[in-house]
Fold:
Amino acid sequence: MLPLNDVLILEIGSSISGSYCCKILADYGANIVKIETIDGDSIRNEEPFITDSSNDDHSTLFLSLNTGKKSISVDFDNEKSIDIIVQLAQKADVIIDGTTPGFLETKGLIFSDLLERNPSLVITSITPYGQSGPNSNWEWSQISLEAFGGNMYVSGDYDGEPMSFGVPLFQYVAGQVALSSTMMALLCADRIGGQYIDVSIAEVVTSCIPYALQYYTYTGAVWGRGPKDRLLFGVDLWPASNGHVGLSVIRSTDFEEIAAFLGVPEMYEEKFSTPQGREENYEELKSLYLNRLQEIDKDDFFHEAHAWRLMASRELNPKELLQCEQLIERNYFTNIDHGTLSGLPHVSNVLGLNTTKGIPTEGSPSLGQHSEYILSTILNFESDVIRDMKDKGVIK
Amino acid sequence: MNDKLLPLQGVRIIETSDILALPMAMSILGDMGAEIIHVEYAQRPNFYRFLGPFPEGDPGINWHDRSGAFNGSNRSKKSFTLNLSEDSGRDLFKHLVSISDIVAENFSARVMTNLGLNYEQLKEIKPDLIMLSNSGYGHTGPWKDYVGMAQVIEAATTSHLTGFSDKTPSKAGQSIMDLVVAWNIVSAINMALFHRNKTGEGQWIDHSMLEACTPIISSPLLDVAYNDKYIQRNGNRHNTYAPQGCYPCKGNDDWFVLTIKSDDEWGKFCDLVNDESLSANKYPKNIDRMTNHEEIDNQIKNWSQNLSKQEVVEKLQSINIAAAPVNNSRDLLLDKQYKHREFFEQVDHFEETNIGKRIYSGLPFNMSKTNGFIQNPTAPLGFHNTYVLSELLGLDEDNILDLEDDEVVSEYKSGTEVQDMRVGNMPAGYKPASPSNQSLIDRGDVREDDTNYKNIIEEF
Structure:
C-alpha cells in the first residue's frame, strides 16, 4: 500500500516542473492522468532522443519525467474535449497545471468553476513568474529565470560573465515546491476543502540564494561572483590526473590533515599555517597543490580522503554517476521497459521513505495510449461514444 | 490570518540539525504551521550561528543570535537547549519525542545510535513516529559514513554539465543543493504524514542528499545509458536554439540574458536592433546562428552595452522575446513583480537580539486558503526552554532549576567556553570574525558596499 494509492491527479501542460512533480506523485502511488494536446506534450520533441527498433525517436527528457502515468490526448479547441477535462476534474483530487497564465481560461477551463464543482479539489499551477503581477506574461526561458531570480549574478568567475546551470535545475526545484505545497493542501483538504496554489519559478530561484540576500539586508554588501582567487580549499573543483576534485577546509586543523593526506611536505611550512598566510602565498600554494593533484587518480583521492575524514568532492560525469556503487547498492536505479526499449534506468524512492518506497513500475506512456481506458474506467463512457470522439478528432 | 487554517497546524517536529538543508526544510514546515522545536547544545551551537553576516558587520556580545545565515534558515521555530550527552538530557529528549509527531536529524549514522536515539530505539516510545535522517549518501551502502555537503553533491551531479566549454566543471550559485535537499525533505515529510494520517503507520526516512539531487540529470542519465553520450557543458548557450547568452549592459556589473527560440523571433530582434550588421540578418536560419554564435554574441554586446539592463529587457519583452535582467540582491528587493506578489517578508526581530528589521524571502508559492508565512523571527538560543520544560513536559520550577544547575538545559553564556567547529573550543568572550565589506570587495566576493540598504529595509 503506497501513500497515494487512491489519489487521482490530472497533469496538464508541457513543463518539466509539472511533470517532475507528477512523476514523484506517481512513484508514491497516485493515479496520474496526463492530459496532452492532440500534438502531445512538446517535451516529447526535445533532444536528445533514444531511437527504438521501429526507428521512432523518444525524448530522454520525456521518458525520464513521465513514468507510471496514463496519457489521454484531447483537442483543446473542441468543446467536447474541454467537457471531458471538466468531468475528470470533478472526480480528481488534484490538478497539476504547467500551462502559461490565462491559457486554460481562454479554452473555457476556469479554475474557480472547477473548484466550485469539486470543493475538495486542489489545483496547483506552476508558472515562470506566478499568476499575477507585471511580469506574469513575460516570455521566458530557463536562463531568463535564473538571471531574474538572482542565481546567475552569484555564479561564475569574478572577471567573467554571470553563468547559468547546464541543466534545468530550477525547473526541478519548482517541481519539488509544487509537490510539497500540493501535499500540504491534501493534508488539510479534509478540514478545509480544496484550494488553489500558485507557484512562481522565479521566486523559487530567489528562495535558493538566502546567503546573498541576507548579506545585503544585514550589511549592504552586494554579493557577486568571487573571490578573485578561487579558494584552493573551498567549494571549487581542481584538475586531478583524470578529472576534477576538491577538498574543503572547515576546521582549522583540516589544512594540516590535507597536507598530510596529499603528502606534500612543503605545505607544512609556517607561511601556510594560517588562512591569512595561505591567502598571502596563494600562487605558491596553488602550484604545490595542483602539481600534486596531477599525479592523483580522482577516485583514489575521493575514497582515501574520506578515510582521513576530510570533506572531499569528486566530479562525476553522467556515465560515472550511473555506475556509482553507492546508488547501485541502495537500488536507486530501477530498470523499466518502454515499448521495445528495454531496461532504461530510472531514479527510485527519491524521497527516501523506508516503508512505503516510491518505485516506478511502468514506462512513460505513448501519446493517447490510455485515452480509451481513462474515458471508460473513470468517466464510464460507452465504447461507441469513445469511437465517435476518436473519429471526430476530439481525442486521439 | 488564522493559524488554525495552516496545513500543518497541530504537527510537532523535534529537530536536531546543522548547516543549511535540514534547518531550511524545518523553517518551511514552520511557516506552514508545524511547531518546530529546534534542539541545540548551548555550548556547541549550530555552525551557521558563527557564520554571519552580522548586522552592520558587528557580531556583538550575543553574536550567536545575530548571524544572517542562521536567521535566514531558522525562522518559524522554537529554540530549546539540551545537552544530549547527559542521561537526563536524553530522557528529556525521549519524553519530548513521545509527545511529538516527527523527529528530523542530520547527525552521522553512528551518533544517534550511540545516543540511543535512532529510529528503532525511539519507535519504542512513539510507535507511529516519523523520523527523517538526512545524510550525504544515506545510512546504508559502502558510503554510509562518507560526509557530504552541498558542493560535494553538486560535483557528483550537475557540475560536469555546468560551466563554459573551455573551463573546468563548475559550481553555480551558493550551496544550491542544500535548497534542493530542503524541498525534497519537505516533500518526504508530508508524504509520510499523509500515509500516517491514513494508516496510523509511521516510518523512517533514510534521506540521501545525492538521491534527492540526481533526478535533475535524469535525462542525461538515460542518454548515456542508451546512447553512450551526453550533453557537453556549454556556458550560457542553449543546446538547440541560438542565440542564447548573457550580455553586458551600461552600468556597474550589469547584464541581461536572452533566448531566441525561432527564426521568426530572430527576424523581429534584428528589426528592433536596427544595427547595420544585424539588420542585414546575415543568419536567418537557426542552424547558421548555432555555428556563428560568437560573431552574433559580439553584435548583441555592441548593441546592449550602451543601454541599461531595464531598457534592453523592456524592449525585448515588448516584442515577446525571452529576456531578463541579471538581478542582484538589491534589484530583487526593489523589484516590482516581487513587490506585487508580496514575496519578500519584512521581519522585526526579538528585541534582545538588537537586529531590528530585516527582509527575508517568503515561500515561493501562494495558497488561496492556507497561505504560509514567517510565524516568528529566529528565536534567541534557548528562548523557549521554559515553554518546552514546563508547558510541554510538565516539569515544575525545582526540576527545571536542577536541570539548569546540572547544565543539562542551559542558555548560552558568554562567560563560558564555546565550540566553534572551525577553530575548536574558544575561551569566554569569544566572537567570530566579521570581515568588513571593503575587505570582501578587495577579495572580490562583494561588488558594492551599498550604504543605503537600511533605508531600503525601512521603506519596504
About this structure: Chain A has a mean pLDDT of 96. The first strand of chain A starts at residue 8 and ends at 12. Chain A touches chain B through 149 residues (CB under 8 Å).
